[in-house]
Amino acid sequence: MRRQLSGLVNRLLWICFLAAGFYILLAGGRKFLQDEAGALLREESRSIQRSICREAARFLYPGLFYTSGEEQEDATLFSRYIDWTLRMHPLRKLSYAADANPAESEVTWEIRNSEDENERDETGEEDELASLAEEENASFSWLPDSEQPMETEESTPAQAGQIYSLEELSDFDYLLSNFYTVESNTIVTAEDLNAEKLLAKNMTIDKEVDGPQILIYHTHSQEGFVDSVPGDNSTTIVGVGAYLKELLEEKGYRVLHVTSVYDLIDGELDRSEAYSRAAEEISVILEEYPSIQAVIDLHRDGVDEGMRLVTEIDGKTVARFMFFNGLSRTKNGNIDYLYNPYIEDNLALTLQLKLQCEQYYPGLSRNIYLKSLRYNLHLSDKALLIEAGVQTNTLEEVMNTMEPLADVLDLVFGS
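-> structure tokens emitted (415 positions)
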């Protein structure tokens, strides 16, 4: 009997202890949730709101934020989660890709970053709009699929040439998407790319005129290739220009090759006023030789170091090239101080050349690049800026390119 009573008392004591424990846990938990845990949850809620607001503002107004990381809030678990989640948005992924891969774009680095008169607004201040294009260029987001960077080499397979009908080319969207790449801070209209009007323009050169008929020069004479020899201009874009002169002369043209240096000051590379210095001298030469009917500024493009732009023609590896147009216009309107009376003629010339490339040398030329500024294309109605090869090409590959390029120029200038 005594043993049974003892067991009952023990069970009652255990029940009391358990009840007291549950009471303590319940009361303490309630207090914890009301005070410390509640405060933590409220703080994390505010942190989430701050993260969302900050990222939304960064997304809508990227120019208000620095991406260098010099000022960052203390990261919390929730803020890191929000940041990671927002990175999954396609446009945010584009922004992070630009930060992670500041590689060279399809457009020459020196052209984008020059600080001469072509890069300044009406007040003389540097045109900050160019920086918007640099961010997109670095991510390669705007490039045609056929020109996306590859780890080793980009090679365009040989294919049959194509002749486009006027009906196809008169479709503005078709023309734009198949033949052009447009910089993000400029705009081009159907009126600008009126194929019927552009193809009707006479771009021929009179070979009977005494004196030089074509002028070749190099705003950036120091541009070289993967195997260029330092100090030897014959292995740079200047040497390539000399070979193009020779090929054009074989076709019956009289060519003046200007080898003046505009991008060196006191022996140091300085492209800050290269276009202005080039314009000054070339303008004088054009006055001296009124027989000159076409002006070619021959460049070498710059791309990511893991990328090569080549194709094969007649068993030779050749570097691809690109025609380039400046529109003297941003999305805000025309840039009056960069007036160019020959914009339509310049556009006509590059389109006619591009179509000849597609017919006779498909895969050789890249999309025509349209940029907002001028680049001395106002010097002639037949002014050309050509990006021949890139810094990862060999000199031989770019020299090989001059042969089909000379043929294409002759098809338009001599027709």
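The longest strand covers residues 294-301.
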